[in-house]
Amino acid sequence: xxxxxxxxxxxxxxxxxxxxxxxxxxxxxxxxxxxxxxxxxxxxxxxxxxxxxxxxxxxxxxxxxxxxxxxxxxxxxxxxxxxxxxxxxxxxxxxxxxxxxxxxxxxxxxxxxxxxxxxxxxxxxxxxxxxxxxxxxxxxxxxxxxxxxxxxxxxxxxxxxxxxxxxxxxxxxxx
Length: 175
Fold this sequence. Notes:
Elements: H1 2-34, H2 47-54, E1 59-63, E2 66-72, E3 80-86, E4 91-96, H3 100-103, H4 112-119, E5 124-127, E6 134-139, E7 146-152, E8 158-165
Antiparallel strand pairs: 1-2, 2-3, 3-4, 5-6, 6-7, 7-8
């Protein structure tokens, strides 16, 4: 009988511990989401302070005027941030590059590397049948449940590009 009493006393304590852990995890996740965007204002900040806020950059590209840090938000993310640094390593500006204005700049014949420099790393890629090339897909923030897709040839040039419906929004999908 005394063991049952001890278990009953432990249940509220375990419940409080579990509640506390869940609250801590929720706060951690919320702070991680809010820290994904670059600090405002970004101008003058060091690469180290930006990466402390946003995490390590996925790609660093060298430019004549400095470098660009690339921060994609992952395959299901809707943003890719480019942070431009001057040659001294201080931030000049930040830009969210997954925009319809940038998508309009992608044209047939453009080189794959030019698309990569304009839009960053694609969220998803898949190969086309019969070795016809690959498709790069970019989710982006919009109200129409669309994504931007770029079809690249085996020669690594753009064959076509345009907006399409996200797979999870397709009414013909039978999950």
